[in-house]
Design a protein that fits this description.
The chain has 878 residues and is mainly α. It is built from 37 helices and eight strands. The structure holds 2-phosphoglycolic acid (PGA). 2-phosphoglycolic acid (PGA) binds next to helix 22 and helix 29. Its cofactor is Mg(2+).
Length: 878
């Protein structure tokens, strides 16, 4: 077993002790003693000690009702503290003898490889300058931690950094310890579960806070690193306006299945973004105005500043006034419609030019060293965030647009759009798109739902182009879905091009994505409206929920290949937008490997992906970690663009076809066809109870019904809690074992060695199987499931064992993750804290189901805390 780094171990130990002392202060030594007995029992039980297991269950059974909540909280908080220590460990100061982290060397090493491969200096610099990576922050409800706690966690990480200096004086060390103790006490005495659902505006504010507290600082640092790697490799610098990575957002724009996101909310969020951006730049410009007291200036700057003795300050103060005016207007406009006065900044150019003028003048006058400080950082921020901070996407369900059009055609006496064939719909939409007269008569009275769709389109039309990203259509299937949105936007008065993006997210829709886009691109007039690349979104998690991960992964891959091909034929650039979550079942996985496993040609300098829920915190919540992740993105996209993986061999494709066909059949045989599956799912997992966790602003379901009506997130979330992790692996056991039985084992090994796509799939599968735990899942069955349904549970656990055996065989190991001992160790150390939470959760579920009417009490609170704790321990929610 790999040793966990002694420093990490020490940090975890220290945080645990400090938590213990808070618990003792509040609840006394006897209570702390119980926690210790539970922990030690769990640890011994994991090592196979029957005595340990007895001690664990006996102590848990002996808990009084009023002790359930604090016990759940203790283990939950401990797991959160362990996460903080582990996260901090990724960025702690490295000793000179330690190897440089992969994230820090990935770009210099790649540039060296590319040079050796014959890429010239100019072309490399151009490529990096042109990269177009967009990370789209979404409010997907998978962040269980409250914002107020996240702030305390960040502060704890700061103190770990502060104490990580050997030369601290004893008094200084003591003060750090006191601060840590205080922060942990604050966290312990703060409720970890939100009482009320956040509103979409709260969610958007949370996203802005990540920018304010982390990305605002990380982005210029990251670009400094890119610039110096580029310079070292090529002697060239990154252009001032280069923004290889940008940010977009769905927070306040994604209304798919979320009635709380209205046109008014979207408007408010757009204004808040402007307010926030102006406020952040004001802080920068204030600092610059204080620092740039220099006198000598270029003629160009002089022409602006007149004969002012401090020309830089003069120009910057003017900019400061405009930023103040912008901020004041955004604030006032939040309280009512208000035309912006002329001082309000409307165009990125107005922000950039004065700063660039100062920058150039400093360089011209021999003060490059001053120019390249905070002023350069500010210019980098302007290039990345601009005046609007993020580009807001809109997302709405295809069915809502079709319903709106049906209402309109019905009113006009044309029949019902929803009943028309695809050809008829297209003919109608094309005609109307070309028509100069409006489609909607003035006296048209829409239903509330259609009025909302139309109001949203009007907000889009009214907003500045640079403040918006794409209009994404969920559950899209055909060309008319795209044209329908174009027509509704036209009706709302949109006169500029906007990217209207179909999101393909079922197996059938992914299979049909190529033909649909082919037809769309060939429709008369469509290309003229396109302007820029054709964007297509691939939905990872809903397709996996529909078909299982084996078939979904292959369908996602093939759809991308076909789209690359079709767009090439039409001579249109393609931008693929990857909609994936954090967990494997939702297409998650390490970004670097994921990008390098995309089909060749699909990452041609462009890449758009969602960053969701808790992953935003894990990947971008602390500036140093954010910098590492931005490096990974940039290096992977550059590599996939310039050194794309080879196309798979025909024999690999054939085998993948078989795996997918058998995978989906095996998956659906359970999830769709087994008559007991839905009742089993409801009893064995906390699915119903999860809906009560006020995680996000949107409801857990699109409509009433069984598994099909459940969104992908609660579906995955429920199986994660019981550790069966079913959606992430079900189907692979059959697919892999059949192939092995057919004698195709060697080919599978070859695919794993030579085909990044397949390798990444198997790596992810292995990881999720290592987190799965059949014995824990059985505990839930024993406590919660009717006797008649239990055989199904046994069957599923048997399938889990088969999946594990197949992966072990394929990877030639006797234990999962033995080639990656650090990951394994990080998973197994958490079991000591997770096991008691699982036991408690099963018990709490049983009790709360018996007393259905008592929502909101301590029991329910303890249950929700156990959910949050397990999610924290597995570092993934849904
Ligand atoms: P959606 O996302 O339900 O918002 O389409 C699914 C997911 O990200 O898992």
């Amino acid at each position: 077993m790999a040793e966990i780094d002694a420093r990490l171990r020490e940090d975890v130990h220290q945080l645990g002790e400090l938590l213990g002392s808070c618990i003792r202060d509040q609840r006394g030594a006897a209570f702390l003693d119980k926690i210790e007995r539970i922990r030690k029992g769990a640890k011994a039980a994991r090592r196979g000690s029957a005595e340990g297991a007895r001690q664990l269950t006996a102590t848990l059974d002996g808990l009084g009702e009023d002790e359930l909540l604090p016990v759940a909280r203790a283990f939950n908080q401990f797991l959160n503290l362990a996460n903080i220590a582990e996260q901090y460990h990724r960025i702690r100061r490295r000793r000179p003898d330690e190897p440089v982290l992969f994230e820090a060397r990935v770009l210099p090493e790649l540039l060296a490889r590319l040079k050796a491969d014959g890429h010239g200096a100019d072309s490399l610099a151009r490529q990096i300058g042109r990269l177009d990576i967009e990370l789209v922050l979404t409010a997907h409800p998978t962040e269980v931690a409250r914002r107020t706690l996240i702030q305390k966690y960040d502060a704890i990480a700061d103190q770990l950094a502060a104490q990580d200096h050997n030369d601290l004086l004893p008094g200084e060390r003591e003060r750090v310890r006191e601060r840590l103790q205080r922060l942990i006490a604050e966290a312990w005495h703060t409720e970890e579960i939100r009482r009320v659902r956040p509103t979409p505006v709260d969610e958007a504010k949370w996203g802005f806070a990540v920018i304010e507290h982390s990305l605002w600082c990380a982005v210029p640092n990251f670009l400094r690193g890119v610039d110096s790697a580029l310079h070292a490799a090529t002697g060239l610098h990154l252009p001032l306006d280069a923004a290889p990575v940008r940010f977009a957002s769905w927070m306040g724009g994604d209304r798919d299945g979320n009635p709380n996101v209205t046109a008014a909310v979207t408007r408010e969020v757009l204004l808040l973004a402007r307010w926030m951006a102006a406020d952040l730049y004001l802080r920068d410009v204030d600092q610059l105005a204080a620092e740039l007291s220099m006198q000598e200036a270029s003629p160009a700057l002089r022409a602006q500043a007149g004969d002012s003795p401090e020309p830089y300050r003069t120009v910057l103060k003017r900019l400061r006034e405009r930023l103040r005016a912008t901020r004041a207007w955004a604030e006032a406009a939040l309280h009512g419609e208000l035309a912006p006065p002329s001082a309000v900044l409307q165009d990125n150019r107005e922000l950039r030019e004065p700063l660039e003028l100062c920058f150039q003048s400093l360089h011209d006058c021999g003060m490059g060293v001053i120019a390249n400080g905070p002023l350069l950082d500010c210019l980098r921020r302007v290039a990345t965030f601009g005046l609007f901070l993020v580009r807001l996407d809109i997302r709405q369900d295809a069915a809502r647009h079709a319903a709106a059009l049906s209402e309109i055609t019905d009113y006009l006496g044309l029949g019902r759009y929803a009943d028309w064939s695809e050809d008829d719909r297209i003919a109608f939409l094309l005609r109307e798109l070309d028509n100069r007269r409006p489609l909607l008569p003035a006296d048209f009275r829409a239903s509330a739902e259609t009025a909302e769709v139309l109001a949203t389109c009007r907000e889009v039309a009214a907003a500045p182009a640079a403040s918006l990203g794409s209009y994404v259509i969920s559950m899209a299937g055909s060309p008319s879905d795209v044209l329908a949105v174009q027509l509704l936007l036209k009706e709302a008065g949109l006169r500029r091009p906007m990217r209207v993006v179909p999101l393909f997210e079922t197996l059938a829709d992914l299979d049909n994505a190529g033909p649909a886009i082919d037809r769309l691109l060939g429709l008369p007039g469509y290309r003229a409206r396109l302007h820029g690349p054709q964007e297509v979104m691939i939905g990872y998690s809903d397709s996996a929920k529909d078909a299982g991960t084996t078939a979904a992964a292959w369908a996602q891959y093939r759809a991308q290949e076909t789209l690359v091909d079709i767009c090439r034929r039409h001579d249109v650039e393609l931008l693929l937008f990857h909609g994936r979550g954090g967990t494997v079942g939702r297409g998650g996985g390490p970004a670097h490997a994921a990008i390098l496993s995309q089909p060749p040609g699909s990452v041609a300098g462009r890449f758009r992906t969602t960053e969701q829920g808790e992953m935003i915190r894990f990947k971008f919540g602390l500036p140093d970690i954010a910098e590492q992740n931005l490096n990974l993105y940039l290096a992977a996209v550059l590599e996939a663009t310039l050194l794309p993986p080879p196309a798979p061999e025909p024999a690999w494709r054939d085998l993948m076809d078989r795996l997918a066909a058998e995978g989906v059949a095996a998956y659906r045989a359970v999830v769709r066809e087994h008559p007991q599956f839905v009742p089993y799912f409801r009893q064995a997992t906390p699915e119903q109870e999860l809906g009560r966790l006020p995680l996000g602003s949107r409801p857990a379901k699109r409509r009433e019904g069984g598994v099909e009506s459940l969104r992908a997130i609660p579906w995955i979330f429920a199986w994660t809690q019981t550790r069966l992790m079913l959606p992430a692996w079900l189907g692979w056991e059959t697919a892999l074992n059949n192939a092995i039985e057919r004698g195709e084992g060697e080919r599978l090994e070859q695919m794993r060695e030579q085909w990044p796509f397949f390798r990444t799939r198997i790596d992810m599968l292995e990881m999720v199987l290592a987190k799965a735990d059949g014995a824990i899942a059985r505990l839930y069955d024993e406590r919660l499931v009717d006797a008649g349904l239990r055989p199904l549970g046994d069957h599923l656990r048997d399938l889990l064992s088969q999946a594990i055996r197949a992966v072990l065989k394929l990877t030639c190991q006797s234990r999962l993750l033995s080639h990656s001992p650090e990951t394994l160790e990080s998973i197994t150390v958490r079991d000591t804290y997770l096991d008691p939470l699982h036991l408690l959760q099963a018990e709490l579920l049983a009790r709360s189901r018996q007393r259905e009417n008592e929502a909101g009490g301590a029991l329910e609170q303890a249950l929700l805390v156990s959910v949050a704790g397990i999610a924290a321990g597995l570092r993934n929610t849904g």
